[in-house]
Amino acid sequence: MTPLNVEEFRALAKRRLPRGMFEYVDRGTEDEVGMRAVRNGLEDAKLRPQVLVDVSAPDLSTVVLDDTLQMPVIVAPTGGAGMLWHDGEVQLARAARHAGIPFCVATQSITSMEEIADRARGANLWFQLYLFEDREIAWQLLARAKALGIRNLLFTVDTQRHPKKEWINRSGFRVPIRPSLVGAMDLLAHPRWTLDVLARYLLTTGIPCFAHYPPEFHTPITRVTKQVNVRLARKLTWDDFEQVRNRWDGNLVVKGVMKRQDAERAAALGADGIVVSCHGGRNMDASPPALQVLPEIADAVGGKLTVLADSGIRRGSHIAKFLAAGARAVLVGRAPLYGVAAAGEHGARAVLEILRDELDNCMAFTGQSQASAISRDVLV
Length: 380
Hints:
GO terms for molecular function: FMN binding; L-lactate dehydrogenase (NAD+) activity. Residues 1-380 form the FMN hydroxy acid dehydrogenase domain. Glyoxylate binds at residues 24, 279, 282. Belongs to the FMN-dependent alpha-hydroxy acid dehydrogenase family. By secondary structure, the chain is an alpha/beta fold. It has a single domain (6-167, 225-378), classed as TIM Barrel, CATH 3.20.20. 42% of the residues lie in helices and 11% in strands. The protein has helices at 6-16, 19-26, 33-44, 88-99, 113-119, 135-147, 168-171, 181-188, 191-203, 238-247, 260-268, 290-301, 316-324, 334-365; strands at 62-64, 67-69, 73-75, 103-105, 125-129, 152-156, 251-257, 273-276, 306-310, 329-332. The chain has an eight-stranded parallel sheet with strand order 3-10-9-8-7-6-5-4. α13 links the parallel β9 (306-310) and β10 (329-332). The radius of gyration is 20 Å and the shape is globular. The two termini are 36 Å apart.
């Protein structure tokens, strides 16, 4: 049966993936209050219908940082996406290319940005940067991204600690993946994934590594690295932002902004954009939903830089709500991951097409002929 919405793709992904891997994608942190708040906030926000408006030729395109996107969506960076489907990151990049939107390569991708660019030729690639304890590794990554012609850098700044994901201790899955009896039984219960993904890697390239770590730090994802150099930075300040700004001459977008004052400072220090994001409820459980704080931030800095947003998007109407609240476009993470986990590139394409069709419907019912013109008065 062909899935009709993102939730049905989620159900397929849940059946296909080992439990631990599915929960790694699907779940949040601590009591998962933040995830529920994100979902409830999107459901509670209402859009005002408008009638007798010509919506016969809708325009879903928008311009983000001088790029024309065929719809106001960017495929978000997600570490380990290549473990959901063989070459999952390449599949996602190809699906994004087909949809006419960007794909953001994650720092902790298991496929290098160079290989993704080669195998998804023509894809509009962004690069997401985490800073390591050894800053030189990050500077090398910037040089590699520049050499590929990548112009948009997504600097993620909201992960100064590892979130407390208690369910990990039950599922036996974490990144790095640590062998366990529970995990082994999980693999045996999902032979299709074990053969199509894990065994295929073992027979071709070997146990995957984080492709953007320097060669001397390449450690299989089944082994916990003892190298401090490649641990995510615990100390992250505006001085680090200025160092990144000085080394990157393309567009710099700061991801994880949830406070008006931080947005204003980012604008003052030369950011080209921000992503208002609560990390999908995966980091700080007590965080408010991104949609709740977006209007204040957009009103403060929307005229100075590009405002993007993410967290919890599973319907086209969710995209419309973020646009109405002040975002120029949104990043989607879990939704295309469910698609690629269920059916590779074909599944990711289908999810993006579903979101496009639902956004088109929502625009028609609210009397909006241009996605880029959706304004605050659409929100009730």
